What does this fold into?
Amino acid sequence: MKLVVAVVRPEKLGEVLEALFRHEVRGLTISRVQGHGGETERVETYRGTTVKMELSEKVRLEIGVSDHFVEPTVRAILKAAHTGDVGDGKIFVLPVERVYRIRTGERDEAAVTPVG
Amino acid sequence: MKPRLGGASVVSEAGTPLCAEASFFNSLGGLRMNAADTAWMLVATALVLLMTPALGFFYGGLVRAKNALNTMMMSFAALGCVAMAWALAGYSLAFAPGSGWIGNLSRLFLHGVDLNPLGTIPHVLFMAYQGTFAIITAALISGAIVERMQFRAYLLFLTLWSLLVYAPIAHWVWGGGWLAKLGALDFAGGTVVHVNAGVAAVVAAVVLGPRKDYARQATLPHNVPFTLLGAGLLWFGWFGFNAGSALGANTTAALAFVNTMLAPAATLLAWTLLDLRRGGKATAVGGATAIVVGLVAVTPAAGYISPLSAILLGLVAALPSYFGVLWRPRTRLDDSLDVLAAHGVGGTIGAILTGVFAQKLWSGAANGLLYGEPRQVLVQIVAVASAAAYSAFATLVILKAIGLFMPLRVTDRTGEGLGLDVSQHGEEAYGTGEGAILVLPELVPPPVAAPAPAGERA
It folds into this structure.
């Protein structure tokens, strides 16, 4: 089992979710985050106050998958979240020690397999 | 608008005819200034001006958070550039005497627009009152082109549109132009304001093309309470729009005022029932839309029909617009905030029903189909069709011309993706300030400092 963590542009989230669902990846968690990669900062001005915004809005997806689902998941995100500009985000694939499904107490592979 | 009854010409104190403007006021007592009329028109002007910020809230709530400021600024900007265009030239093109098609330039730069009475109110006040109409009409178009237009191109478009489209059509109907002579009834602007803006909106949406996410991703309203607030403030301001179009504190104003209360109420009820029937739930965005549709529909009719007719008109007007807003998202026409369904369709239905329900008994002006004048319906249709045709053509020409000099749209990723608040205005509607680094004044190129005495420099 792996945990796929992806940080993507908020405006690409719709396309990413669509791609994941099309590849039958159905269990995931998302959160709105702020981060800094290599983007050029935005300059904003409020009356006399000028600021450089160093952090950009991003969305983080966390997806627990069984091993043979890692490749399709990663490829779906790579394709759907891509614009070609700096700031498209990152994908991390992490090992997972154990997974439990709270409702049934199932663990590991059984816990990340979608309920038919 | 503007009761057109008697035919006696109004003559200024100097003995020369005041101008064609005065022909609207023949029934209002010639040159005697009236304090009550002036007081009401001062208030009505402020009420109509409030409608433009209200429209900003109505539209602003319906877009995504990253475009909230841009959408609201599209309304607020009209308060600047359209008001200027109106005072310097638009008023003359609309209300100075001229041909049946457009006014001449005799009122350019407010020449002769002074404190002397026009009808029963000061001429300057009449100019300002009409200016508030020009402002909101231009701002209405923005609902069709939100979340994608370059702001500088939009400013130019607003200004040119108010001069080249709004002013001539206002002249046709209210400035003594050819539709006025034909006998078209448009109490407060069903054709001049709403059909005109609705058609221009569709043309603008087609020329700009749909948003990149349109019909691919959900683009949901980010703040429905703003939209309800805007609808409420629009209703409040609309009392000045419709009852003020009587140009005095009189019985016609009272009739228009009451109809402005009853017709949207009927539309709101009808819309809610349609919502309940269709989805089992009465939606808030639907309710806000219904109020605007009812207001639009009663606008041409307000001072011409009985209160009971206004209720009927409000009920009937709900249907075509309701199905219009259901139909539009199934097309490639990204009229994003349904300016066509609310203003174009609502204005058309209102204009035609004015020709059906008009009742001389109430207005002293004209009878419609139900009261023995079937021809009035045809006149109304001619007025709507000609205003729509001219508006479509001229809007297309203006946008294509601007497109030759500057891009009309923002670029895909740095504009639409990031949002127009940051890309067009350098601000955020709901910024948290996290990650903001203050750019200190020293980092800005400093003003040239006086040379320090040489001995103090290392």
Q: What stands out?
A: The beta strands of chain A are 2-8, 29-35, 42-46, 49-53, 56-65, 89-95.
